[in-house]
Amino acid sequence: MQKAIIFLGLIGMLVFTTNYAYSQDVGLATFQESAQVLIEKNKTQNVTASIALQSTSIQEIRIPAELEQKIRDNGRITSVILTNQDRCVLGVNDKACIIINVARDPAEKNFLEIQNATKIIANSFIDELNQVFDTNAKFHSVFVQSSDEISKAVETSGGAASKGTVSVVYAMPMEDTESMYEKISAILLPKVIRESEGFYNVAKILSKEDKSVMTFSIIPLENKSLLQLKLSAAYKNVESTNEVSPLEFLKVDELKRSNYFSKGFYPLNSILQVAVMSPESTNVSDVHGTIVETQTVGGEKIPKELTGEGWVFDPDQGKIIQGKYIFGKRTSIAKDELVFSLGGNELLAPKTIGKFDESTIVVIIITAVAIGAAVFYLKGYRK
After folding, report:
1. Are residues 171 and 204 in the same domain?
2. Are 152 and 301 part of one and the same domain?
3. Is 181 part of any domain?
C-alpha cells in the first residue's frame, strides 16, 4: 500500500517534469508490459507467474470511447472486471464473470435498498460490456463487501473491492484461458501491439498452463482509465530451493521486450518483478546477472541511471524480498542472467544520499508510474 500511495502522490508531479525527462532521452509510453513472479516459500512453495499489459490509452487497449467516458462519468463505479477466475466472488463457482464494482452510497441503509440501487447502475452498462467483450453474461448476484477480510477472497487483478464496495456479478459459462485470452486480446489489442510480440507472447504461452487465469480490468481515474489485461499461472507445491530462476515459471528461456518500444528509449515500460515471501528472514545472494547502482531517496531505492540493465532489490533481506529488473538499452534477457539465490553471502548495503537534484526526481516519478500500478495490483502483495 505504501508504494501505491507514493505512486498516486507522484502522478501530479509528472505533468511538470515530463519535458525534462524527455530532454534526457528517457521516454515513458502509455503502454506498459510487466512480468511478475510471486514465490511463497514454505516446506513446499507456491508460485504465481503473471504478465500484465496495461495502458491509459484507448487506442492501445481498445474499448469504445463512449463507454470509457460513461464509466468515468458515473462517479460511483470503481472498476469493471472480466475474468475466468473460478469463484470470482464468494458464491460463484465454475463460471466466468463480469463484475461491476460500485462505491456504496451511505444513504442506502438496508441490503434490499443497496442491492436494487446498485443493480440499476450496473444494468445500465452490462449490455455494452457484453457487446465489447463478445460475451453473454447474465445477472447472478449482488455481493456487498462488508469487511476487509471478505475482500481478500477476491483474487482478480485490479478487482480488489474493499469495505464500502458493492459488486454486481454477471456470470457466463466457464471458458478455458487459452481461448479466452486469444479472443479478448484480439478484441482489445491493436494488431501493431500483438505483432510486436514481447511480453504479449509470454502471456500466450502461460495461457496454456492448467492453472492459468485471464483478467481484464477497467479502473476509472479522474481524466482517463487504467486498462489492464493480465494473465496469471499458479504452480502449487513446487519443490523449494534456494535458487530463484524467474523465467522458469514464465516458461521461456529468454524474456524479450515488445518491439512496440523500438522507436525510442523507454527503459521503464518493460519491467520484470520478483517477490519472495518467506516464513524466516533471508537475503539475496549469488546474483548471476548485474545489480544496478542505486541511491536511496525517501526510503526508496532508485537507479542512478537507466542505460544499464540489472536488478534493483528493495528490500534485499528480510521475510519479504522484492526485486525489479530493468532492461536498460537491451531488448532481451536470457534465463541464466536472471538467476539469484537466497541465503549465503549478503549483498553490499545501498549507498544513501542526503540530497538529490531535479533529474533524480524525474527518475523517481517515471519509476513510480511505470511499475506502481502493477505492484499495487499484483496478486498476493496484500499479504
Report:
1. no
2. no
3. no
- pLDDT, tens only, 61-116: 999 999 999 999 999 999 999 999 988 888 888 999 999 999 988 887 788 888 89
Phi and psi torsions of 132, nearest 5°: -65, -45
Among residues 271, 309, 304, the alpha carbon closest in space to that of 289 is found at 309
Lowest-pLDDT range, 154-163, 224-233, 281-290? 154-163
- 228 and 105 share a domain? no
Is 182 part of a structural domain of the chain? no
- pLDDT band, residue 371 (cuts 50/70/90): very low
Q: Which pLDDT score, from 0 to 100, does residue 147 have?
A: 53
- DSSP string of 252-319, one letter each residue: -SEEE--GGGTTS--TTSEEEEEEEEEEEEEEEE--SS-B--EEEETTEEEES-SSS-EEEESS-EEE
- Which triple of cell numbers denotes residue 271? 519491467
- The one-letter amino acid at 177: T
Identify which of 150, 152, 158, 169 has the alpha carbon closest to the alpha carbon of residue 99. 169
Average pLDDT over residues 182-190: 97
Which pLDDT value is given to residue 262? 92
Length of the chain (residues): 383
* Pairwise CA distance, residues 5 & 185, whole Å: 30
